[in-house]
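G.,

No rush on this.
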Amino acid sequence: MTDVLSGGSGVMNNFTFDVPTVIHFGRGQISHLAELGSAGRSVLMVYGGGSIKKNGIYDSAMKVLDDAGLAVYELPGVEPNPKIGLVREGVSMCRAYGIDMVLAIGGGSSIDCAKLVAAGARYDGDPWDLMVDSSLIHAAIPVYVVLTLAATGSEMDNSTVVSNPETNQKLDISNNFLKPRMAVLDPEYTYTVPKEQTAAGSVDIMSHVFESYFTNTAGADIQGEMCLAILKVVVKYAPTAMEDPENYDARANLMWCSSLALNGLLTLGAKVKWCVHPIEHELSAYYDITHGVGLAILTTVWMEYILSDDTAPKLAEYGKAVWNISDGCSDMDAARLAIRRTRDFFDRLGMPKSLGALGIDDTHFEAMADSAYGFCKGCYVPLSREDIVQIYRNAL
């Protein structure tokens, strides 16, 4: 590993910001699904297991859609780390029934599945082609969202992550045709999220912010300050949401943090390639673990691995802002303490500390590093294939 930070710039970079997603935030906003009636006559509802039927969200959505005169087709069974097989099934339904739009009800997995279904419905080949080469996406049927989990930020961005168990691949692509047209964010819909999912989702939000915060572009002060503000809010409210699941303020703040962490706002003018996410995606691809769990294990291991005289000031700035570490500490001492406080916080959320705790050994580390390396080029601190293998080993 080199200590030289990569891809830096002396000034904030040029950018264009375009987020066409209309957000309806707050109690009772599911009524806005009636607007889908002006966008077409049929909708494919994409969701996971039975939770939306148990908590009443399914019935609420169906009533609004029925009153709007929409024909509703259903694609249930989306798993964490959505699989290409179910996407193919959804694409086939869209083609067979001439479906006009896709509605995802759930968290990031349902939304990601819906996005690829929407693009696949306007593509003549296998939808996995689009994950391998997103430039093949030239159109998509409209995507709408009812969010039920604060985590991935997929409700307001142009990305999707889908796994292919046949090839042990979990790929992440971005394309502006994938941006949802509208998203309903009702914090009360997250009241029934289990503690472990709330914890993993909170870690995912923090990881998105970390990947944006650790940039080498000088002069992007406002982006950095926004990152630190979101991290402080997540640290404040994640434990509250776990201990008091129906605390509206906690759920509302986490939900909006999720969207702001990944809608592009934090990276405008300060782009950097992410590294912890691609490294974790390999874990999810091979072992089908919860994304936030893998991130909780890898994040502080990565921080420790890249800690140097070059990176200590940035880590110290984070520690002083989020963890109230004394200004009297040296940058290196503050950086080390910031890493320790981050790990302690993940422990407080009940996140596992090591890959070994999940029964993972080093069998696939070489192959995983081969796949992750290409996605990490240009990250905050350059990582070689060997560096990535060592990060996996340090996480055992």
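When you get to it, here's the other one too:
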Amino acid sequence: MATTADLGFVGLGIMGAPMAGHLLRAGHRLTVHSRTRSKADPLLAAGAAWGHSPADVAARCGVLFINVTDSPDVEQVLFGPGGAADALRPGSVVVDFSTISPDATRDFARRLAARQVHLLDAPVTGGDVGARNATLTIMVGGPAEALERVRPLLDCVGKRIVHVGPSGAGQALKACNQVLCAANMIGVCEALLLARRSGLDLNHALDTLGSGAGGSWAWTNLGRRIIDGDLKPAFMIRLIQKDLRIVQDAAQRAGLPLPGTALAQQLFRAVEAEPGGGALGTQAMIRAYERLAGAGRAPEPGCPQPGGPA
């Protein structure tokens, strides 16, 4: 691929906006589109062009990146009114960073292949921090030769790019990742509550256990946010709930019980029931645990309380 390329990016949320910014700063010509135009303002000020629709973006690029919420949203971007599919030139590559159904991905890939367009499903993990720092892990399904064409572009937004199989394989592996995220969040909340009730300093607990066998990205990053009382989203509860529905659909098709995932769904659902709960970060699971544990019970003297300032 040439040093610079004509690229398109549709979907400029918490993850998409910084990822698009990395591509722009790498010197590529970038056309962007988002349902809310104001989300594109920083990119437009930095030199990106505005596309009035996904089709308008697709007509100007050889590689189209998508980062939207769910399977119907990707279908709308590609095949809906003003969609990208009819405007993409033969030989173009679509890279879908969204987290969606593996089955839907395989269907989209077949429909695009009929137009001589390659689809790579390329969901990411690493959170908003990874998106801002270009340290994401990218799990890619689809044709290996298409991946090699766009790998230099993916290197702009991620630290580890792995080809995991044919179309849909990236989304299948992302589903496995979301199982781990849900289970880790349960562990973080339960460990912090036990530490508090045991009279331990939560900051010391966080620092000490982070380097041990029980340490994890969630413990270090989301545990810190819980202790600081920061429930702002790196990843919204309503979005992981969408992902866990994809997980459970895949599990049902495979005949697998996933009781830990089901527990996480119920705990997240308890937070979703609060006004605005679905827009909180996944670390807000701590609220469900606090209610179960008895929110009125005071912490031990001198011990920070999860969900409140340290």
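The radius of gyration is 21 Å. The CA atoms of residues 229 and 308 lie 4 Å apart.

Enjoy the weekend,
O.
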